[in-house]
Specification:
Length: about 300
């Protein structure tokens, strides 16, 4: 159990969006307790705030995207993973484009950004959603389930018909130091024979060997090779952490994912919030440990946020 945290100062980075191919600047700013993570998309006409909540999820392909009143921000999962992995609860993430910059295709740049800004505690307890009964989502042979556990942990497995991947599994015991050491550097990946098809559908326009592991039939095209022998399953863990951040509150449970993806992850978030009798909310300000009969309201401040027009 701990207090909520934010960053101590504003800090920025710039890069190209993986799917849009457009250059964008991202700035993280401190936020007050109970704000959660709020994206702020700047337009010439002003700005729009988008809370990192499952209610703002919009269906998309190969990434996780949020939308409010027609304003969309794509590929939020890697920065959300960095914030959740380093246990940063409240932050404003400002963007001058419609997609989070890909950087090197992992969460590493965002981790360094957060560490450079500094993480500071706030005077409000951090609630936790503790799983009491298993909750599962399946699609064919793919599944993701969250079960009761004394501590937060993830078991993830992937399987691809490729000599560099085949079957891989990874068990992640949740902590800020473990995220930085084991998960943050794992990059997104793509298969060379699928890249042209992605371009034809308007995806991966900003993809390159600088931000994506590209696999030919024989091996990896990136001259630097892999950062981990099992980098592929580690990146799936990264995506899973980012997608589960849309709960709006950290969980205590064992998350098991088998050949899952963004759509399945976010369906699990929806199902968790629907099945209110399968979890309890701990460490609230009232110190209650009873079933919470409505979805977490950690975005209450974000919902009423008044954003000043962009200059």
């Amino acid at each position: 159990m701990r207090y909520q945290q934010t960053i101590s100062q504003s800090i920025s980075c710039s890069g190209v969006g993986l799917h849009t191919g457009q250059r964008v600047t991202l700035t993280m700013n401190p936020a007050p307790p109970d704000t959660g993570v709020v994206f702020i998309r700047h337009h010439a006409e002003g700005a729009v705030s988008l809370a990192a909540a499952i209610s703002n999820l919009v269906p998309t392909e190969l990434c996780t995207a949020l939308s409010v009143n027609g304003t969309q921000i794509k590929t939020v999962e890697h920065v959300l993973a960095a914030l959740a992995g380093l246990e940063v609860d409240n932050v404003y993430v400002e963007l001058d484009g419609g997609e989070v910059p890909a950087m090197d295709g992992s969460s590493s740049a965002f981790v360094k950004l957060i560490q450079a800004a500094g993480v500071v505690p706030q005077n409000r307890r951090r609630p936790y959603l503790k799983i009491m009964q298993p909750i599962e989502v399946r699609e064919g042979g793919r599944r993701v389930i969250i079960e009761p556990s004394a501590t937060p942990r993830i078991t993830c497995s992937v399987e691809y018909d490729h000599p560099m991947i085949q079957a891989q599994a990874y068990v992640y015991e949740w902590s800020a130091s473990a995220f930085e050491r084991e998960i943050a550097d794992a990059r997104t990946f793509a298969f060379l024979n699928e890249v042209e098809g992605l371009w034809a559908r308007g995806l991966a326009k900003g993809g390159s060997l600088e931000n994506t592991i590209v696999l030919s039939e024989q091996g990896v095209l990136n001259e630097s090779g892999l950062r981990f022998q099992n980098e592929f399953v580690r990146h799936k863990v990264l995506d899973l952490i980012g997608d589960l951040a849309l709960l709006g509150v950290p969980f205590i449970g064992h998350l098991i994912a088998d050949r899952s993806g963004h759509a399945l992850h976010t369906k699990l978030v929806e199902k968790i919030l629907e099945q209110t009798d399968s979890w309890v909310l701990l460490n609230t300000e009232e110190d209650l440990a009873v079933a919470h009969k409505s979805a977490p309201l950690v975005h209450a401040h974000a919902a009423s946020l008044q954003v000043s027009p962009a200059f």
